[in-house]
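INFO batch 0412 | record 1 of 1 | parsing
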Amino acid sequence: MDTKLTLKLDKFVVDSAKEYASAHNKSLSRLVEAYLMSLLNAQSPENKNEIEITPFVKSLKTGVKVPSDLDDKKEYGDYLMDKYK
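INFO prediction complete | emitting tokens
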């Protein structure tokens, strides 16, 4: 059930938020609701010990599996050796 809420915010913030919401094909109400839900979910007891991953970081996910014993310094050194042969 939706309930009406009146907020008093800085005009610049409201105008910028409206532009952001429009650019992402969302209403400002849904944007605020999603933000408040993320705050509430972060406060739930089962999420207290988990690290929150931001949407930006999630968007970087490639699906590539990296071995746990990978020596990144050696790999990078090998890459540079090949690059500057």
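INFO post-check: Helices lie at 11-23, 28-43, 55-59, 72-83.
INFO record closed
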